[in-house]
Hints:
Radius of gyration: 18 Å
Shape: flat
Protein name: Metallo-beta-lactamase domain-containing protein
InterPro entries: RibonucZ/Hydroxyglut_hydro
Strand content: 25-35%
Number of strands: 6
Strand order of the largest sheet: 1-2-3-4
Distance between the termini: 28 Å
Number of domains: 2
Amino acid sequence: MIIIDKPCLPAAHTIADPSLFARSSNTRLYYLKPGVFWEPAFRGHDGFYMPVYCFLVSRGNRNVLFDLGSHIHFDYIGDPSRFPPATELIIGPGVKAAAWPGYPINPDGSVLDSAAAGRSVRKI
Length: 124
């Protein structure tokens, strides 16, 4: 992981302290097929490279972590239940309808019900 300390983000001395973590600057994405983005398909181009960024924005003892381009995905969703109950789970449109109820209530669920248990879930 590449950590960029105080990147080219606007100074925010009175609002927040932004940090940028570049998880990878050259990630090969095979699951995002180029045909989703352009046509005709190019033979031999079965994926493409793109950066993956993660932002940590802090003010005092309050933090928010934002994973640019984050989306629901069964194989790397993380485990929100490991965070304190005061940590809000922020989701995008359609996630609640697509993901809940989760496992074990829904045996085919792609998330665990414990991910949202005892915490505020807010859609943005």
